Amino acid sequence: MTTRDIHRLMESSLFSLETEEGILASAREEAFGAIFGRDTAITVIEMLRVYSRRPHPRFLTMAERSLRTLISLQGRDVNLESGEEPGKFIHEFRRDRFDHLVKEPSPWFIYPDGTLKNYDSLDSTPLVLIALYRYFETTGDERFLNDAMESARRGLEWVIHRADKDGDGFLEFTLDPERQHGGLAVQSWTDSRESFMDIEGQLPAYPIAPVEIQAYTWLALRLWSRIFVKDVDFYQILSRVAGRLQEEFIRQYLFKDQGLWFAAQALDGNKNQIRTITANPLLCLWASDGSGNDREAIVPRDVLAHFVERSFRDDLFDPASGIRTMSAVSPTYRSTRDSYHNGSFWPMLNGLIYQGLMDFGFWREALRLKRAALRPIRYFKMPIELYLREGKGYCEYLSPSGQTSCRTQAWSAASLLSMVSSRIPRESYRMVIRAGASDPKTTLAPAFVPGSTA
Known about the structure:
42% of the residues lie in helices and 8% in strands. It is mainly alpha-helical. The strands form six sheets. The chain has a three-stranded antiparallel sheet. Strands 6-9-10 form a three-stranded antiparallel sheet. It has a two-stranded antiparallel ribbon with strand order 1-2. Strand 11 (317-318) and strand 12 (322-323) form a beta hairpin. Helix 2 (37-53) runs parallel beside helix 12. It starts with a helix and ends in a 19-residue tail after the last helix.
């Protein structure tokens, strides 16, 4: 498949997932053929990136319809059994095809109108807030902004007042012990229990504060502070919370691994770092603000250079597949077909990491990742959900219960489309080629020394 073939396939795949209510997370006949807040938000953000390079009016129609649906599903009440809270954006919405979720012994909650609405994702809210802002930034649509303002305010208030479970300034998830209905024990994008378990099969102490969600939240607060700049009190709250989050993140998440600064997978309920090496800290590059040399992330550029260098070592980066979800030297790493998040490869994850590398000018690493991540796509010829290495080839995920990888996944299609539609600036590309794209050294020299985290 040529790059143009991949572009066409990803675009047509996205169009095939369009409904009157927005973008399905996967094909309707697949496991996730429904509306998911996290998936929709990431898909919309990446579609808007593509639109900014190659405008296609259908992308804007799909994005607006999807965002308006998410606004309509935003939490209004406190419902312990579904995880609903005022201002919180939805995790999963189904009108039908949810028989597998209402089986004993822990059936999920069904609302009186017969729909399944579940709010068990900590990151849906900051991601939807980012998507709402990016849509207005891309379109300049004042009507949409006016319609979204109250929803955005409620989402931001949820982030500030409800998502921080213990007052430490971070967003955390937990499951209330009094809950009678089923739900998700892990509420970040790596939402399988295995992704957070230790070698004895135990989950960390709740509440758990995943690394990437702090970066998303920092960005959402910064972006919306611009919109609310005339609301002085609210603007100051947003700015203050974002500043504290950034300061505490640098102090509490960073640690040294293989001589380089990296970030913990999460903080547990006792504020201990969960030091499993995953790809998630690289999502800090994707959740960034600004442009060129003025671009900022939740951690300084020198720290990001460490993140990048660490992530392109052999235990995380495979030149034929991309960056793994989890390091091959982790005690909980698995390369078997039933490994959902503990060593598998996700096109969405690699696509977002690629965009972050591009945004900060890590051209050499971006090119290496692009070449690696597109090889399995040429093999599968589909926007597959995830895959694993098998010998010198690839295999699809297969759970113990028989569930396979979704083959038409929205955020895979959108992030891959964004990847193939982006280009390294010509002069930078020439420099990378002359230096050798396979050179494992990063383009920025590590130099960060935070005294409080040494």
